[in-house]
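Run Fatty acid desaturase through structure prediction, thanks.
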Amino acid sequence: MTRQPTATDLLSRGEIRALSQRSDVWGVWLVFHAWGLILGSVWMFTLWPSVLTFALAVVVIGSRQLGLAILMHEAAHNALFRTRRWNEQVGAWVCGRPILADLASYRHYHLQHHRHTQTDRDPDLKLSRPFPTTRASLRRKLIRDLTGQTGVKQRAAQIAFAFRLVGETDGVSSQDLAQAFSGPVLGRALMVNVGLFALFWAMGAWWYWLAFWLLPLLTWFQLVLRVRNIAEHGAVEASDDPFRNTRTTLANPLERLLVAPYWVNYHLEHHLLMHVPAYRLPRLHRILQQKGLSTRMTVAPGYIDVLRQASARRPAPPA
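Sure, done. The structure for Fatty acid desaturase is below.
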């Protein structure tokens, strides 16, 4: 079997050291940016209430809920802050628990994905294996996400697992629910959401938490989470080559706002050197290009192109 290249084969120690530098200032800015867009969207609707500002707020907030998940992912790699305690506390309480996610559970699950990418031991394989699929199948999945069906099903499974109403033998395992909770962990997440309920009420009305937190979490967040998962490992080569089993997607400003916040689109680079903070991944991408690796890398020109690739399978002919 041919040995696949690692980051140390492609980059100098100096390059790796420079790319891996963490920053508390960057961490604070990213967390404030995510929450600033969330609260700013709610405030925009409060000042100019309309169907348009309501829909825009739901979409922007849903994308920033994904942004919080990405920042929790950064914390799982100890890359969000330089100060380890900030990494753990902010990653858990400010990024993870508001979206009903648990940093410790996620870290354990996610590192398995890095160790076993696109193999039978990859806990995320179920997310990529169905692709490419047909357009009709992809359309049904996206409709289930956007209408809240996926979100309700997953949150109900989380709660059932937390209270041991189901067990691993019932088809709901910690790998199936990357955020499978214990009762106390769920309690802390609910406590944070009670605080959010009070904050949103203070900004406008009691129903704001339902409209501007729960609704985006069950709809737009689920949609962009699926699109992100497809873009990262869907319809790529099933191999152990880090340049072929993971995809980077070039995102335009609108895609970065609504689908791919905080450089999550540079996923090939992240797998190659997973401790590099997200804001340095574009630089790593350029370094790889300068080293003549562009033709070897799996890169999509945008998310529309990714969805075309993911739905390229022709439907089976009628019997």
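The first helix runs from residue 7 to 10.
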